[in-house]
From TrEMBL, chain A:
Gene3D superfamilies: ATP synthase, F0 complex, subunit A. Component of the ATP synthase complex composed at least of ATP5F1A/subunit alpha, ATP5F1B/subunit beta, ATP5MC1/subunit c (homooctomer), MT-ATP6/subunit a, MT-ATP8/subunit 8, ATP5ME/subunit e, ATP5MF/subunit f, ATP5MG/subunit g, ATP5MK/subunit k, ATP5MJ/subunit j, ATP5F1C/subunit gamma, ATP5F1D/subunit delta, ATP5F1E/subunit epsilon, ATP5PF/subunit F6, ATP5PB/subunit b, ATP5PD/subunit d, ATP5PO/subunit OSCP. The chain crosses the membrane at residues 6-31, 67-86, 98-117, 137-158, 170-197, 204-222. This is ATP synthase subunit a. GO terms for molecular function: proton transmembrane transporter activity. GO terms for cellular component: mitochondrial inner membrane; proton-transporting ATP synthase complex. SUPFAM superfamilies: F1F0 ATP synthase subunit A. PANTHER family: ATP SYNTHASE SUBUNIT A.
TrEMBL record, chain B:
The chain crosses the membrane at residues 20-38. Keywords: Membrane, Transmembrane, Transmembrane helix. InterPro entries: ATP5MJ. Signal peptide: none annotated. It comes from the Eukaryota. One of its GO terms (cellular component) is mitochondrion. This is ATP synthase membrane subunit j. It comes from Canis lupus familiaris (Dog).
Length: 226, 75
């Protein structure tokens, strides 16, 4: 039972070769490059959604911050599509792997911090001490702010990993419970099945929300540093 | 194929890769340094565990000193 529960999170391989790279690249097929001024329905809907998201997300940024528009939109599309594809039965979700999420969080967070130190050195250093701090508390608060800065990429990665992994585990457990209860009590199995459906709807929402939260936080870190 | 790749990927993305994402490249370098440090530490600790296990299995052999264990994993 324990081995089966976490078997779906193991990196997949086919005939001994790892196919994680193919799985990570797969969502890009679902977003075709628009080749005409007026495209088909799928591309038009995707373009409309991207425009809606980018307008909302980039409204707070100045010119320097808006150079990250392509990166932020690619990020939210990738994480959202990967999370949604992971809800298909027996599929592998790359965003359940902490290594993958750290690989996204660390370069982006470091990019925002280095941007801040490069273009606004004084303002970036000033972030380590909130305004109006009493004099005796300054050393401790500088240490606390430094720790909170270095925890940001860890929090980004672990938040996404934990949310997606927990959701998949719950679906797995409640699905197993539903199957086991069919032979014992059909009414209880039906109630568990209703819970499973509600949980799946919740996981669809969580998949999109986590993509939005990840991208929004990177955008906020960028806004603080530009 | 390379020409097609350059035309379709490098040419439109050149201003991003060369100017906009400079700091992100530095972040990727930092991440690869962290990955290298973690993997080398893991390799070193596994080699050390293997050596201690082999020496305890052999019996009668002297355990390598702390200096040798930490600085010369192949000793």
């Amino acid at each position: 039972m324990n081995e089966n529960l976490f078997a779906s999170f193991a990196a997949p391989s086919m005939m001994g070769l790892p196919i994680v790279v193919l799985i990570v690249m797969f969502p890009s097929i679902l977003f075709p490059t628009p080749s005409r001024l007026i495209n088909n329905r799928l591309i038009s809907i995707q373009q409309w959604l991207i425009q809606l998201t980018s307008k909302q997300m980039l409204a707070i940024h100045n010119q320097k911050g808006r150079t990250w528009a392509l990166m932020l939109m690619s990020l939210i599309l990738f994480i959202g599509s990967t999370n949604l594809l992971g809800l298909l039965p027996h599929s592998f979700t790359p965003t359940t792997q902490l290594s993958m999420n750290l690989g996204m969080a660390i370069p982006l967070w470091a990019g925002t911090v280095i941007t801040g130190f490069r273009y606004k050195t004084k303002a970036s250093l000033a972030h380590f001490l909130p305004q109006g701090t009493p004099l005796p508390l300054i050393p401790m608060l500088v240490i606390i702010e430094t720790i909170s800065l270095f925890i940001q990429p860890m929090a980004l990665a672990v938040r996404l990993t934990a949310n997606i992994t927990a959701g998949h585990l719950l679906i797995h457990l409640i699905g197993g419970a539903t199957l086991a209860l069919i032979n014992i009590s059909v009414t209880t199995a039906f109630i568990t099945f209703i819970i499973l459906i509600l949980l799946t709807i919740l996981e669809f929402a969580v998949a999109l929300i986590q993509a939005y939260v990840f991208t929004l936080l990177v955008s906020l870190y960028l806004h603080d540093n530009t | 194929m390379l020409q097609n790749l350059v035309k379709s990927v490098w040419v439109p993305m050149k201003p991003y890769y060369t100017q906009a994402y400079q700091e992100i490249w530095l972040g990727m370098g930092l991440m690869s340094l962290i990955v290298y440090k973690i993997r080398s530490a893991d390799k070193r600790s596994k080699a050390l565990k293997g050596k201690i296990f082999a020496s305890s299995k052999g019996g009668g052999q002297k355990t390598p000193s702390y200096f040798l264990r930490t600085r010369c994993p192949m000793a």
